[in-house]
Write a structure and sequence with these properties.
The chain is an alpha/beta fold. It folds into 2 domains: 171 residues, Thiolase/Chalcone synthase (Peroxisomal Thiolase, Chain A, domain 1); 150 residues, Thiolase/Chalcone synthase (Peroxisomal Thiolase, Chain A, domain 1), CATH 3.40.47.10. The protein has 11 helices and 13 strands. The strands form 4 sheets. Strands 1-7-6-4-5 form a 5-stranded mixed sheet, sandwiched between helices. It has a 4-stranded mixed sheet with strand order 8-13-12-11, with helices on both faces. Helix 3 packs across helix 4 and helix 8 packs parallel to helix 9. Bound molecules: oxa(dethia)-CoA. Oxa(dethia)-CoA binds next to helix 2, helix 6 and helix 8.
């Protein structure tokens, strides 16, 4: 089918909270050590949102930066998709809150949850609207306040996560650039290895949590680790095969930032050097769906991306979900 337009990223933005939580500070909260966390995860510190700050404010900050970077006005946005597992409210959605804060009065708005893979899912959904000409400018904002749902008595999870927001504007781009291939997937049958109950939880689920705490992250870390190491390389290979190009044609891989060892395993399976794998988890920890767009914005602002560069965006997460996209930089 001939698609009238190409969809690509025309602007990026991000915002991290000011407050840092270092590994050394965590040593006084749970029985852990900087040495263990660095060796097993690569994380040194993460950012934590103030109790008084709504996530919507952080998301709006990242969104305003992306819109300015795209050289458009908030009024030009046709659709806002917010990806999050930690919205301030289930209703109004984070997307509607962002719409109000940034003044994008003409936009439709909804939230989407594919856990840490949310940004890749939102990219693939948005791409359809741009390619078929329905919309001109779509704001994707991925924002998380994971510190609000972390159990700070569970050392197996509380050292991993942080807070932050990343946003992109997706719009019409030149031929030969933009998104050329994307794959999405899910393994719902394995969903019980990473859970965050909302209004209901099974007895089995509750029994796994310290003091039966309900609204916190619980994870079987090693199961997720095994899934992640495999699916990151498989998803990357699938989008490359789909486009008929080789990993050697790729300038950078932007992976979900969960654990440095997962990224090293994936790089090894793909036979790519780690200097092609963009990482920032050392200073952000795992910020779920915000990881990939925050990395993209950082790399763009550092001047690392040039028009025509081929990039892989790849993520996995709760659900379990996974996805990858091949993007040729348009700016
Ligand atoms: O965004 C997607 C979601 N998450 C992920 O992608 C996470 C995937 N999984 C991981 O990153 C790793 O599995 C973890 C970092 C969570 C854990 O690393 P691991 O090397 O798989 O450790 P482990 O769970 O096998 O635990 C090894 C030991 C255990 O002690 P024993 O039973 O051997 O005495 C743990 O109790 O390390 C202990 N441990 C810790 N020790 C100090 C677990 N967490 C900590 C900690 N500090 N924070």
């Amino acid at each position: 089918m001939i698609k009238p337009f190409k969809a690509g990223i025309t602007g990026t933005g991000s915002m991290l909270p000011d407050k840092k939580l270092t590994n050394f500070q965590l040593e006084s909260i749970v029985e852990t050590s900087d040495e263990w966390i660095v060796k097993r995860t690569g994380i040194r510190e993460r950012r934590i949102i103030d109790d008084s700050m709504p996530l919507a404010e952080l998301a709006a900050g990242a969104s305003n930066r992306a819109i300015a970077d795209a050289g458009i006005a908030a009024d030009d946005i046709d659709l806002i998709i917010a990806t999050t597992i930690t919205p301030d409210y289930l209703s109004p959605s984070l997307a509607c809150q962002v719409q109000k804060l940034i003044g994008a009065g003409k936009a439709a708005a909804f939230d989407m949850n594919a856990a840490c893979t949310g940004f890749i899912y939102a990219l693939q959904i948005s791409r359809q609207f741009i390619e078929n000409g329905t919309y001109k400018n779509i704001l994707i904002v991925s924002a998380e306040a994971l510190s609000r749902i972390v159990d700070f008595t569970d050392r197996r999870t509380c050292v991993l996560f942080g807070d932050g927001a990343g946003a992109v504007v997706l719009g019409r781009v030149d031929d030969g650039t933009g998104i050329s291939s994307a794959i999405l997937g899910a393994c719902g049958e394995d969903g019980s290895v990473l859970t965050i109950p909302c209004f209901y939880a099974t007895e089995e689920d509750l029994a796994l949590r310290n003091e039966g705490k309900k609204q916190v992250i619980w994870m079987d870390g090693s199961e997720v680790f095994t899934f992640a190491s495999k699916i990151m390389s498989e998803s990357t290979k699938n989008v490359l095969d789909d486009s008929g190009i080789s990993i050697n044609d790729i300038k950078y891989i932007f992976p979900h930032q969960a654990n440095m060892r997962i990224l090293q395993n994936a790089a090894k399976r793909l036979d790519v050097p780690m200097d092609k794998v963009y990482t920032n988890l050392e200073y952000t920890g795992n910020i779920s769906s915000a990881s990939v767009p925050v990395c993209l914005d950082e790399a763009a602002k550092k001047g690392l991306l040039k028009k025509g560069d081929k990039l892989i965006l790849v993520a996995f997460g709760g659900g379990l979900t996974y996805g990858a996209a091949l993007l040729t930089w348009s700016k």
